[in-house]
Amino acid sequence: MRIAYFDCFSGVSGDMTLGALVSAGWPVEQLQALPARLRLENVTIDVAVVKRGAFQAHHVVVDAPGKQPHRHLHHIESILDAADLSAGVRGRAREVFARLAAAEAEVHGTTIQKVHFHEVGAVDAIVDIVGALVGLEYLGVDEVRAGTLPLGGGTVMCEHGRIPVPAPATANLLRGVPVVMGPVEAELVTPTGAALLSTLVRDWGRPPAMRLERTGIGAGTREFAEQANVLRLLIGETLAAAGGAGREVAVLETAVDDENPQFLAEIVPRLLAEGALDAMLAPVQMKKGRPGTWLVVVSEPTKSEHLAAVILAETNSLGVRVHLERRIELERRVDEVKTVAGTVQVKVALLPDGSERPHPEFESVREGSRRSGMTLREVSDAAVQAWRNARKVSEESSTRRLPS
Asked: At what angle do helices 191-200 and 123-138 cross, to 10 degrees?
């Protein structure tokens, strides 16, 4: 799995992110062609190599002449829908702007449909967000991680006047994210940077164990006497679990009794839909001999508060215990194989000894069973055999290509 780790020791913004991606190997020509792909006229992008403290970094400036209109969410979505983008980039960009709209709407006491995008609806913010997603896609990044975000301090000017750092929308976006004030009196995390990372980052903490492949340095516009105003990007392949790779997850637990079993049956799919990594129910005997149900949920640490709120709202639980644990994970990927029941997805886990373990995805197996009339076991066995046959052909092909 290829990881992009954002080392935000001096914060993060949209232009810093673009600069770091170019520095890490995203062709500058692709970045400069982005306005045309977004159908944005008279927009130019300048990329320069600059010095920030001891670092040589790439600095990106998006220039759009004239005063920018106040755009609503549907205006942004129309731009994205008309743009020449992959489905993955378009979907993620819509997700980022939806988060921004929700944060701004909360600040201004309105709805996401009515809220005006101010600075974050300008052309440069659109290019920053879409460009970051296109750059990550080009570099083959599967997962984004980041460390604690330093927010800076003091105040900053915006369209509504002077406001404290972090800006209200930025603070809303970073709920559940590890942050620290300082170390300089300036805005270190912009709303655009906050929206990108709060949407993309799967895990907050120290860099994972990985085989480092690329590094990138993106420059901020301001210069600080105290430290270099740069964003560092580390990109590499995660190591197998045997090498000690692991990450932190949140575990939520609660016991409920006197609950309608029909309601309990719905809570697991609801939690999974809300972003839980796993959820399960188990029968237990509670105090005074009463039968009850034990609910256990595994999630990203940043989503634990939201999932706890769902549990408290959807069950009669009066409290949810949350604790952090380290989880060792196997690398995995999803292959598609052709069988007599149609195409079936197979999840492939990389074991510590380097071998691979296939396991057909149940939903895909069930769909194949419905299409073909075959039993679930027959479809599953056919998928595993097709995967093994494809792997054997690939290995034989690789052997034939080796020089004698």
From this structure: 30
Residues of the chain with pLDDT below 50 are 240-244, 404
DSSP helix/strand/coil, 4: strand
Domain definitions of the chain by residue range: 2-239, 246-328, 331-401
**Residues near 383 by Cβ (< 8 Å), separated by ≥ 6?**
337, 339, 341, 344, 346, 358, 360, 364, 365, 368
Predicted confidence at residue 71, as pLDDT, reads 82
For the domain bounded by 331-401, which CATH number is listed?
A: 3.10.20
CATH 3.40.50.150 assigned to domain 246-328? The reply is no
How far is it, in rounded angstroms, from Cα 109 to Cα 113?
12
Answer positive or negative: Cα dihedral of 56, 62, 63, 69. Answer: negative
C-beta neighbour count of 384 within 10 angstroms? 17
Query: Whole-prediction pTM value?
Result: 0.62
* pLDDT of the residue at 160: 67
Gap between the Cα atoms of 122 and 158, Å rounded: 13
Per-residue model confidence (pLDDT) at position 403: 54
* Closest among 150, 215, 143 to 177, alpha carbons compared: 150
Task: Report pLDDT for 210.
Answer: 84
Distance CA 253, CA 321 (A): 5
Instruction: Write down the pLDDT at residue 56.
Output: 96
**Per-residue model confidence (pLDDT) at position 224:** 93
Angle separating helix axes 14-23 and 191-200, nearest 10 degrees: 60
Instruction: Confirm if 270 and 258 have CB atoms less than 8 A apart.
Output: no
pLDDT at residue 105, as a whole number:
87
Q: Give the Å distances, CA to CA, from 241 to 1, 63, 146, 202, 328.
A: 12, 46, 20, 18, 6
